[in-house]
């Protein structure tokens, strides 16, 4: 989805309180999705929440933070 489609279908920049994903994050283009989430979430307190049945592995920085809360 392009940024113009995102704005037309979801809302303007910094307009969403919560973005949540259940059981689907592994299918996403992570770079594009990350940029879209950063753009649409309210600043500075928008929340991104994701969950799955197994431990998700994204990259070292993400994994380090995730495992602090998962344990």
From TrEMBL:
Alphabetized PANTHER family for the sequence: OS01G0307686 PROTEIN
UniProt-listed InterPro entries: SAM-dependent_MTases_sf
Name by which UniProt lists this protein: Uncharacterized protein
Domain of life from the UniProt record: Eukaryota
Highest classification ranks of the organism: Eukaryota, Viridiplantae, Streptophyta, Embryophyta, Tracheophyta
